[in-house]
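Re: the 494-residue chain
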Amino acid sequence: MEVDDVDDDKLLFSQENGSQKQDETALPSISNRWRMILVVTLCFCNISLYLSRANMSIAVLYMLEDGSPWQKWVLAAFYFGYMSSQVLAGWAASKWGGKTVLTVAVIVWSISTLLCVPAFRANERNPILLVLCRVMVGLAEGCNYPAQCKLVSKWISNSQQSTAWTCITAGESVGTMLAMVSSPYLASIGWESIFYSSAAVGVVWIVAFTVLITQTPEAHPWISEGERGAIIDSRLQLLEGEEEEGFQTLCEVPWLEFFRDRAFQGTLVSHFCYNYQSYLALSLGPDFFTTKFDVDISKPDSGLGFYACLPYVCLFVTSCLSGVIADYMCSMGWSLIHVRKIMNSVGLLSCALFYGLLGAPFVQDSGSGHGSLMQAVALLTLGVALGGFAPAGYWSNYHDLSARYGPHLLGIGNSVATLPGILGNIISGVILDRIHASPESQGQAWSLVFGITAGFATLGAVVFMLTASAEQIDFDKRKRQRLAARQGRHATSP
Protein backbone atom coordinates (compact mmCIF):
# COMPACT_ATOMS: atom_id res chain seq x y z
CA MET A 1 0.00 0.00 0.00
CA GLU A 2 1.40 3.37 -1.00
CA VAL A 3 0.84 6.43 1.19
CA ASP A 4 1.58 9.90 -0.11
CA ASP A 5 4.04 11.91 1.89
CA VAL A 6 2.75 15.16 3.33
CA ASP A 7 4.54 18.33 4.30
CA ASP A 8 4.35 17.74 8.00
CA ASP A 9 6.40 14.58 7.57
CA LYS A 10 9.23 17.11 7.86
CA LEU A 11 8.02 18.15 11.31
CA LEU A 12 10.86 19.12 13.59
CA PHE A 13 10.44 19.45 17.29
CA SER A 14 12.58 20.88 20.01
CA GLN A 15 11.85 21.77 23.59
CA GLU A 16 13.59 24.53 25.53
CA ASN A 17 12.56 25.65 29.02
CA GLY A 18 9.12 24.16 28.71
CA SER A 19 8.26 25.72 25.33
CA GLN A 20 7.86 24.24 21.86
CA LYS A 21 9.42 25.33 18.60
CA GLN A 22 7.95 23.96 15.42
CA ASP A 23 8.56 24.22 11.74
CA GLU A 24 6.44 27.09 10.42
CA THR A 25 4.54 24.77 8.11
CA ALA A 26 3.77 22.23 10.81
CA LEU A 27 0.30 22.20 12.28
CA PRO A 28 -0.56 20.68 15.67
CA SER A 29 -2.82 17.99 14.19
CA ILE A 30 -2.70 14.30 13.45
CA SER A 31 -2.57 14.56 9.66
CA ASN A 32 -0.62 11.47 8.63
CA ARG A 33 -2.59 8.40 7.75
CA TRP A 34 -1.23 5.72 10.07
CA ARG A 35 -0.89 8.06 13.01
CA MET A 36 -4.53 8.98 12.49
CA ILE A 37 -5.46 5.29 12.31
CA LEU A 38 -3.62 4.66 15.59
CA VAL A 39 -5.46 7.52 17.30
CA VAL A 40 -8.86 6.35 16.00
CA THR A 41 -8.12 2.74 16.99
CA LEU A 42 -7.16 3.75 20.53
CA CYS A 43 -10.25 5.95 20.72
CA PHE A 44 -12.40 2.90 19.91
CA CYS A 45 -10.47 0.95 22.55
CA ASN A 46 -11.58 3.53 25.11
CA ILE A 47 -15.15 3.19 23.91
CA SER A 48 -14.93 -0.51 24.78
CA LEU A 49 -13.17 0.41 28.04
CA TYR A 50 -16.00 2.67 29.18
CA LEU A 51 -18.78 0.44 27.94
CA SER A 52 -17.48 -2.28 30.28
CA ARG A 53 -16.90 0.25 33.07
CA ALA A 54 -20.01 2.46 32.90
CA ASN A 55 -22.54 -0.28 32.16
CA MET A 56 -22.70 -1.21 35.83
CA SER A 57 -23.95 2.27 36.80
CA ILE A 58 -27.21 1.44 35.00
CA ALA A 59 -27.24 -2.36 35.33
CA VAL A 60 -26.94 -2.27 39.12
CA LEU A 61 -30.26 -0.41 39.32
CA TYR A 62 -31.96 -3.43 37.71
CA MET A 63 -29.91 -6.13 39.48
CA LEU A 64 -30.14 -4.98 43.10
CA GLU A 65 -33.01 -3.59 45.12
CA ASP A 66 -33.00 0.13 45.85
CA GLY A 67 -31.06 0.76 49.06
CA SER A 68 -29.17 -2.54 48.93
CA PRO A 69 -25.92 -2.31 50.96
CA TRP A 70 -24.18 -4.20 48.14
CA GLN A 71 -24.75 -1.42 45.62
CA LYS A 72 -21.87 0.81 46.72
CA TRP A 73 -19.51 -2.18 46.90
CA VAL A 74 -20.42 -3.40 43.43
CA LEU A 75 -19.74 0.10 42.06
CA ALA A 76 -16.51 0.52 44.04
CA ALA A 77 -15.11 -2.95 43.27
CA PHE A 78 -13.94 -1.93 39.80
CA TYR A 79 -11.67 0.74 41.26
CA PHE A 80 -9.91 -1.63 43.65
CA GLY A 81 -8.71 -3.57 40.62
CA TYR A 82 -8.11 -0.51 38.47
CA MET A 83 -5.81 1.02 41.07
CA SER A 84 -3.75 -2.14 41.56
CA SER A 85 -2.40 -2.89 38.09
CA GLN A 86 -1.30 0.40 36.58
CA VAL A 87 2.24 0.79 37.87
CA LEU A 88 3.17 -2.75 36.87
CA ALA A 89 1.39 -2.21 33.56
CA GLY A 90 3.71 0.71 32.76
CA TRP A 91 6.73 -1.47 33.46
CA ALA A 92 5.24 -4.38 31.47
CA ALA A 93 4.58 -2.09 28.49
CA SER A 94 8.26 -1.10 28.53
CA LYS A 95 9.30 -4.77 28.56
CA TRP A 96 6.83 -6.40 26.17
CA GLY A 97 5.50 -3.41 24.27
CA GLY A 98 2.28 -1.43 24.42
CA LYS A 99 0.47 -3.55 21.82
CA THR A 100 1.03 -6.82 23.67
CA VAL A 101 -0.08 -5.48 27.04
CA LEU A 102 -3.12 -3.73 25.58
CA THR A 103 -4.26 -6.81 23.66
CA VAL A 104 -4.11 -9.02 26.76
CA ALA A 105 -5.89 -6.36 28.80
CA VAL A 106 -8.85 -6.07 26.41
CA ILE A 107 -9.21 -9.87 26.25
CA VAL A 108 -9.32 -10.10 30.06
CA TRP A 109 -11.80 -7.27 30.61
CA SER A 110 -14.11 -8.58 27.87
CA ILE A 111 -14.17 -12.08 29.40
CA SER A 112 -14.63 -10.68 32.92
CA THR A 113 -17.52 -8.51 31.74
CA LEU A 114 -19.18 -11.58 30.24
CA LEU A 115 -18.70 -13.53 33.48
CA CYS A 116 -20.59 -10.88 35.48
CA VAL A 117 -23.83 -12.58 34.41
CA PRO A 118 -23.21 -16.10 35.83
CA ALA A 119 -21.38 -14.57 38.81
CA PHE A 120 -24.47 -12.63 39.87
CA ARG A 121 -26.88 -15.48 39.16
CA ALA A 122 -24.81 -17.77 41.41
CA ASN A 123 -25.81 -15.80 44.50
CA GLU A 124 -28.05 -12.79 44.00
CA ARG A 125 -28.51 -12.13 47.72
CA ASN A 126 -24.78 -12.12 48.45
CA PRO A 127 -23.12 -11.17 45.15
CA ILE A 128 -19.49 -11.51 46.18
CA LEU A 129 -18.63 -13.27 42.89
CA LEU A 130 -19.99 -10.27 40.99
CA VAL A 131 -17.75 -8.01 43.08
CA LEU A 132 -14.74 -10.19 42.21
CA CYS A 133 -15.59 -10.05 38.49
CA ARG A 134 -15.72 -6.27 38.68
CA VAL A 135 -12.32 -6.29 40.39
CA MET A 136 -10.99 -8.33 37.44
CA VAL A 137 -12.49 -5.86 34.96
CA GLY A 138 -10.70 -3.10 36.86
CA LEU A 139 -7.37 -4.97 36.93
CA ALA A 140 -7.46 -5.41 33.15
CA GLU A 141 -8.61 -1.87 32.39
CA GLY A 142 -5.85 -0.52 34.63
CA CYS A 143 -3.38 -1.70 31.99
CA ASN A 144 -5.06 0.36 29.28
CA TYR A 145 -3.53 3.80 29.59
CA PRO A 146 0.05 2.79 30.47
CA ALA A 147 0.02 0.56 27.36
CA GLN A 148 -1.52 3.30 25.22
CA CYS A 149 1.02 5.79 26.55
CA LYS A 150 3.82 3.52 25.33
CA LEU A 151 2.24 3.23 21.88
CA VAL A 152 1.67 6.97 21.63
CA SER A 153 5.27 7.73 22.67
CA LYS A 154 6.47 5.54 19.79
CA TRP A 155 4.09 6.92 17.17
CA ILE A 156 3.15 10.54 17.96
CA SER A 157 5.48 13.55 18.06
CA ASN A 158 5.37 15.77 21.14
CA SER A 159 3.89 18.72 19.23
CA GLN A 160 0.83 16.58 18.48
CA GLN A 161 0.40 15.06 21.94
CA SER A 162 -2.48 17.25 23.15
CA THR A 163 -4.55 16.66 20.03
CA ALA A 164 -3.74 12.94 20.04
CA TRP A 165 -4.59 12.38 23.70
CA THR A 166 -7.79 14.39 23.70
CA CYS A 167 -9.01 12.51 20.61
CA ILE A 168 -8.02 9.18 22.16
CA THR A 169 -9.64 9.90 25.53
CA ALA A 170 -12.77 11.21 23.78
CA GLY A 171 -13.60 7.51 23.47
CA GLU A 172 -14.37 7.61 27.20
CA SER A 173 -17.25 10.00 26.55
CA VAL A 174 -18.56 7.99 23.61
CA GLY A 175 -18.39 4.74 25.59
CA THR A 176 -20.18 6.35 28.51
CA MET A 177 -22.85 7.79 26.22
CA LEU A 178 -23.46 4.42 24.60
CA ALA A 179 -23.64 2.71 27.99
CA MET A 180 -26.07 5.26 29.44
CA VAL A 181 -28.34 5.38 26.38
CA SER A 182 -28.37 1.70 25.42
CA SER A 183 -28.44 0.09 28.87
CA PRO A 184 -32.06 1.00 29.78
CA TYR A 185 -33.26 -0.37 26.43
CA LEU A 186 -31.13 -3.50 26.70
CA ALA A 187 -32.41 -4.01 30.26
CA SER A 188 -35.96 -4.12 28.90
CA ILE A 189 -34.85 -7.30 27.07
CA GLY A 190 -32.95 -8.51 30.12
CA TRP A 191 -30.19 -6.91 32.17
CA GLU A 192 -27.85 -9.72 31.03
CA SER A 193 -27.77 -8.25 27.51
CA ILE A 194 -25.97 -5.17 28.88
CA PHE A 195 -22.92 -7.30 29.67
CA TYR A 196 -23.13 -9.48 26.55
CA SER A 197 -23.06 -6.45 24.24
CA SER A 198 -20.17 -4.78 26.10
CA ALA A 199 -18.06 -7.93 25.86
CA ALA A 200 -18.84 -8.33 22.14
CA VAL A 201 -17.52 -4.82 21.40
CA GLY A 202 -14.21 -5.73 23.05
CA VAL A 203 -13.84 -8.87 20.92
CA VAL A 204 -14.48 -6.98 17.67
CA TRP A 205 -11.92 -4.33 18.67
CA ILE A 206 -9.21 -6.93 19.35
CA VAL A 207 -9.49 -8.28 15.80
CA ALA A 208 -9.18 -4.80 14.25
CA PHE A 209 -6.28 -3.80 16.51
CA THR A 210 -4.32 -6.96 15.75
CA VAL A 211 -4.54 -6.32 12.01
CA LEU A 212 -3.98 -2.55 11.89
CA ILE A 213 -1.41 -1.62 14.55
CA THR A 214 2.17 -2.63 15.30
CA GLN A 215 4.35 -1.95 18.36
CA THR A 216 6.35 0.71 16.52
CA PRO A 217 6.26 2.49 13.13
CA GLU A 218 9.52 0.75 12.28
CA ALA A 219 7.70 -2.61 12.27
CA HIS A 220 4.63 -1.50 10.32
CA PRO A 221 4.42 -3.10 6.85
CA TRP A 222 2.23 -0.47 5.16
CA ILE A 223 3.46 2.92 6.43
CA SER A 224 5.26 5.23 3.97
CA GLU A 225 8.96 5.84 4.42
CA GLY A 226 8.31 9.58 4.74
CA GLU A 227 5.89 9.20 7.62
CA ARG A 228 8.07 6.58 9.30
CA GLY A 229 11.15 8.80 9.05
CA ALA A 230 9.36 11.86 10.42
CA ILE A 231 8.14 9.92 13.47
CA ILE A 232 11.59 8.51 14.20
CA ASP A 233 13.27 11.91 13.78
CA SER A 234 10.90 13.67 16.18
CA ARG A 235 11.30 10.86 18.72
CA LEU A 236 15.10 11.00 18.57
CA GLN A 237 15.11 14.79 18.99
CA LEU A 238 12.97 14.55 22.11
CA LEU A 239 15.29 11.96 23.64
CA GLU A 240 18.44 13.85 22.63
CA GLY A 241 20.86 14.03 25.51
CA GLU A 242 19.29 11.12 27.38
CA GLU A 243 20.55 7.60 27.53
CA GLU A 244 19.39 5.26 24.78
CA GLU A 245 16.10 3.70 25.80
CA GLY A 246 16.25 0.09 26.79
CA PHE A 247 14.50 -2.34 29.08
CA GLN A 248 15.05 -1.90 32.79
CA THR A 249 14.25 -4.19 35.67
CA LEU A 250 11.83 -2.91 38.29
CA CYS A 251 14.75 -2.09 40.61
CA GLU A 252 16.51 0.00 37.94
CA VAL A 253 13.55 2.33 37.35
CA PRO A 254 14.10 5.56 39.35
CA TRP A 255 10.84 5.28 41.31
CA LEU A 256 12.01 7.41 44.21
CA GLU A 257 12.98 10.27 41.90
CA PHE A 258 9.46 10.31 40.48
CA PHE A 259 7.89 10.83 43.89
CA ARG A 260 10.48 13.40 44.98
CA ASP A 261 9.70 15.69 42.05
CA ARG A 262 7.46 18.64 42.97
CA ALA A 263 5.98 19.05 39.49
CA PHE A 264 4.98 15.38 39.35
CA GLN A 265 3.41 15.66 42.80
CA GLY A 266 1.29 18.57 41.60
CA THR A 267 0.16 16.64 38.53
CA LEU A 268 -0.82 13.71 40.78
CA VAL A 269 -2.95 15.98 42.96
CA SER A 270 -4.66 17.56 39.96
CA HIS A 271 -5.36 14.16 38.39
CA PHE A 272 -6.81 12.89 41.69
CA CYS A 273 -9.12 15.90 42.00
CA TYR A 274 -10.33 15.70 38.40
CA ASN A 275 -11.14 12.02 38.74
CA TYR A 276 -13.10 12.62 41.93
CA GLN A 277 -15.73 14.61 40.05
CA SER A 278 -15.52 12.38 36.98
CA TYR A 279 -16.12 9.14 38.87
CA LEU A 280 -18.86 10.69 41.00
CA ALA A 281 -20.83 11.78 37.92
CA LEU A 282 -20.27 8.40 36.26
CA SER A 283 -21.28 6.24 39.24
CA LEU A 284 -23.93 8.35 40.95
CA GLY A 285 -25.42 10.41 38.12
CA PRO A 286 -28.17 7.87 37.34
CA ASP A 287 -28.86 7.38 41.07
CA PHE A 288 -29.17 11.17 41.50
CA PHE A 289 -31.88 11.40 38.85
CA THR A 290 -33.81 8.39 40.15
CA THR A 291 -33.76 9.31 43.87
CA LYS A 292 -33.97 13.09 43.68
CA PHE A 293 -36.36 13.43 40.72
CA ASP A 294 -38.20 10.10 40.83
CA VAL A 295 -37.21 9.04 37.29
CA ASP A 296 -38.86 5.66 36.67
CA ILE A 297 -36.12 3.25 35.62
CA SER A 298 -38.63 0.52 34.81
CA LYS A 299 -39.62 2.39 31.64
CA PRO A 300 -37.09 2.48 28.75
CA ASP A 301 -38.55 5.82 27.65
CA SER A 302 -38.25 7.37 31.13
CA GLY A 303 -35.45 9.63 29.94
CA LEU A 304 -32.85 8.20 32.33
CA GLY A 305 -30.51 7.30 29.47
CA PHE A 306 -30.79 10.82 27.99
CA TYR A 307 -30.25 12.60 31.32
CA ALA A 308 -27.28 10.41 32.18
CA CYS A 309 -25.58 10.60 28.78
CA LEU A 310 -26.07 14.27 27.86
CA PRO A 311 -23.04 15.39 29.93
CA TYR A 312 -20.88 12.95 27.97
CA VAL A 313 -22.17 14.08 24.59
CA CYS A 314 -20.94 17.57 25.49
CA LEU A 315 -17.74 16.19 27.08
CA PHE A 316 -16.88 14.49 23.80
CA VAL A 317 -17.01 17.86 22.03
CA THR A 318 -15.04 19.79 24.64
CA SER A 319 -12.41 17.05 25.01
CA CYS A 320 -11.61 17.06 21.29
CA LEU A 321 -11.74 20.86 21.12
CA SER A 322 -9.45 21.36 24.11
CA GLY A 323 -6.58 19.41 22.57
CA VAL A 324 -6.81 21.30 19.27
CA ILE A 325 -6.89 24.62 21.14
CA ALA A 326 -3.90 23.65 23.30
CA ASP A 327 -1.74 22.61 20.35
CA TYR A 328 -2.78 25.69 18.39
CA MET A 329 -1.76 27.93 21.30
CA CYS A 330 1.63 26.22 21.35
CA SER A 331 2.03 26.71 17.60
CA MET A 332 1.30 30.44 18.08
CA GLY A 333 4.22 30.79 20.49
CA TRP A 334 2.58 30.30 23.88
CA SER A 335 4.89 28.53 26.31
CA LEU A 336 3.92 24.92 26.93
CA ILE A 337 3.59 25.32 30.69
CA HIS A 338 1.26 28.31 30.35
CA VAL A 339 -0.96 26.33 27.99
CA ARG A 340 -1.08 23.39 30.40
CA LYS A 341 -1.99 25.62 33.36
CA ILE A 342 -4.68 27.53 31.46
CA MET A 343 -6.40 24.39 30.17
CA ASN A 344 -6.26 22.69 33.56
CA SER A 345 -7.61 25.75 35.38
CA VAL A 346 -10.48 26.26 32.93
CA GLY A 347 -11.52 22.64 33.33
CA LEU A 348 -11.29 22.23 37.09
CA LEU A 349 -12.61 25.64 38.08
CA SER A 350 -15.61 25.10 35.80
CA CYS A 351 -16.23 21.82 37.62
CA ALA A 352 -16.00 23.61 40.97
CA LEU A 353 -18.47 26.29 39.88
CA PHE A 354 -21.19 24.05 38.47
CA TYR A 355 -20.95 21.28 41.06
CA GLY A 356 -21.14 23.98 43.71
CA LEU A 357 -24.30 25.34 42.09
CA LEU A 358 -25.69 21.82 41.81
CA GLY A 359 -25.40 21.46 45.57
CA ALA A 360 -26.91 24.88 46.28
CA PRO A 361 -30.28 25.14 48.09
CA PHE A 362 -32.05 26.62 45.06
CA VAL A 363 -31.51 23.28 43.28
CA GLN A 364 -31.77 20.81 46.15
CA ASP A 365 -34.86 22.42 47.72
CA SER A 366 -36.71 23.06 44.46
CA GLY A 367 -38.72 19.84 44.44
CA SER A 368 -38.78 17.03 41.89
CA GLY A 369 -40.73 18.67 39.06
CA HIS A 370 -39.70 18.71 35.41
CA GLY A 371 -38.30 22.26 35.61
CA SER A 372 -36.07 21.35 38.56
CA LEU A 373 -34.93 18.20 36.75
CA MET A 374 -33.91 20.16 33.65
CA GLN A 375 -32.04 22.66 35.81
CA ALA A 376 -30.07 19.87 37.47
CA VAL A 377 -29.35 18.20 34.11
CA ALA A 378 -28.01 21.50 32.75
CA LEU A 379 -25.71 22.11 35.73
CA LEU A 380 -24.34 18.56 35.75
CA THR A 381 -23.80 18.73 31.99
CA LEU A 382 -21.87 22.00 32.22
CA GLY A 383 -19.72 20.69 35.09
CA VAL A 384 -18.80 17.46 33.31
CA ALA A 385 -18.42 18.98 29.83
CA LEU A 386 -16.28 22.01 30.71
CA GLY A 387 -14.18 19.76 32.92
CA GLY A 388 -13.05 18.19 29.65
CA PHE A 389 -10.54 21.01 29.23
CA ALA A 390 -8.50 19.79 32.23
CA PRO A 391 -6.92 16.67 30.63
CA ALA A 392 -5.20 18.94 28.07
CA GLY A 393 -3.40 20.23 31.16
CA TYR A 394 -2.60 17.54 33.71
CA TRP A 395 -2.87 14.45 31.46
CA SER A 396 -0.57 15.71 28.72
CA ASN A 397 1.84 16.86 31.43
CA TYR A 398 3.00 13.30 32.18
CA HIS A 399 4.70 13.13 28.78
CA ASP A 400 5.96 16.72 29.18
CA LEU A 401 7.88 15.67 32.28
CA SER A 402 9.51 12.60 30.73
CA ALA A 403 9.22 11.08 27.28
CA ARG A 404 11.08 8.00 28.45
CA TYR A 405 9.18 7.37 31.67
CA GLY A 406 5.80 8.67 30.55
CA PRO A 407 4.12 5.23 30.91
CA HIS A 408 5.52 4.83 34.42
CA LEU A 409 4.40 8.31 35.48
CA LEU A 410 0.97 7.78 33.96
CA GLY A 411 0.67 4.39 35.65
CA ILE A 412 1.45 5.92 39.04
CA GLY A 413 -0.85 8.88 38.35
CA ASN A 414 -3.78 6.77 37.24
CA SER A 415 -3.32 4.48 40.26
CA VAL A 416 -3.42 7.38 42.71
CA ALA A 417 -6.27 8.98 40.77
CA THR A 418 -8.32 5.79 41.09
CA LEU A 419 -8.67 6.28 44.84
CA PRO A 420 -11.56 8.74 44.29
CA GLY A 421 -13.47 5.93 42.59
CA ILE A 422 -13.23 3.92 45.82
CA LEU A 423 -13.41 6.70 48.39
CA GLY A 424 -15.97 8.75 46.48
CA ASN A 425 -18.38 5.85 46.08
CA ILE A 426 -18.04 4.73 49.70
CA ILE A 427 -18.16 8.23 51.25
CA SER A 428 -21.01 9.34 49.02
CA GLY A 429 -22.79 6.04 49.67
CA VAL A 430 -22.60 6.60 53.44
CA ILE A 431 -23.90 10.17 53.04
CA LEU A 432 -26.71 9.10 50.75
CA ASP A 433 -27.78 6.29 53.09
CA ARG A 434 -29.33 9.13 55.08
CA ILE A 435 -31.92 9.49 52.31
CA HIS A 436 -33.31 6.01 52.99
CA ALA A 437 -33.21 6.55 56.76
CA SER A 438 -34.71 10.04 56.56
CA PRO A 439 -36.21 11.06 53.18
CA GLU A 440 -36.56 14.69 54.27
CA SER A 441 -32.75 14.96 54.46
CA GLN A 442 -32.36 14.14 50.75
CA GLY A 443 -31.47 17.69 49.69
CA GLN A 444 -28.86 18.07 52.44
CA ALA A 445 -27.23 14.76 51.53
CA TRP A 446 -26.86 15.61 47.85
CA SER A 447 -25.67 19.13 48.73
CA LEU A 448 -22.87 17.66 50.81
CA VAL A 449 -21.90 15.19 48.05
CA PHE A 450 -21.66 17.93 45.41
CA GLY A 451 -20.01 20.40 47.81
CA ILE A 452 -17.17 17.98 48.55
CA THR A 453 -16.73 17.46 44.80
CA ALA A 454 -16.50 21.22 44.16
CA GLY A 455 -13.87 21.51 46.89
CA PHE A 456 -11.66 18.85 45.34
CA ALA A 457 -11.91 20.48 41.90
CA THR A 458 -10.78 23.83 43.33
CA LEU A 459 -7.86 22.19 45.14
CA GLY A 460 -6.67 20.49 41.94
CA ALA A 461 -6.68 23.74 39.97
CA VAL A 462 -4.74 25.67 42.63
CA VAL A 463 -2.09 22.99 43.23
CA PHE A 464 -1.36 22.50 39.52
CA MET A 465 -1.08 26.26 39.00
CA LEU A 466 1.52 26.51 41.79
CA THR A 467 3.63 23.43 41.03
CA ALA A 468 3.38 22.38 37.36
CA SER A 469 6.35 22.29 34.99
CA ALA A 470 6.72 21.26 31.34
CA GLU A 471 10.48 20.68 31.28
CA GLN A 472 11.79 17.22 30.45
CA ILE A 473 13.36 15.68 33.55
CA ASP A 474 16.32 13.30 33.42
CA PHE A 475 15.28 11.02 36.27
CA ASP A 476 18.18 8.63 35.61
CA LYS A 477 20.66 11.46 36.08
CA ARG A 478 18.98 12.50 39.32
CA LYS A 479 19.20 8.93 40.59
CA ARG A 480 22.92 8.72 39.76
CA GLN A 481 23.56 12.04 41.50
CA ARG A 482 21.66 10.93 44.61
CA LEU A 483 23.55 7.61 44.77
CA ALA A 484 26.89 9.37 44.20
CA ALA A 485 26.13 11.83 47.00
CA ARG A 486 25.24 8.98 49.33
CA GLN A 487 28.46 7.12 48.48
CA GLY A 488 30.41 10.33 49.07
CA ARG A 489 28.91 10.74 52.54
CA HIS A 490 29.75 7.13 53.39
CA ALA A 491 33.31 7.56 52.13
CA THR A 492 33.92 10.62 54.31
CA SER A 493 32.22 9.25 57.44
CA PRO A 494 34.61 8.03 60.20
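The chain is about 75% helix and 0% strand.
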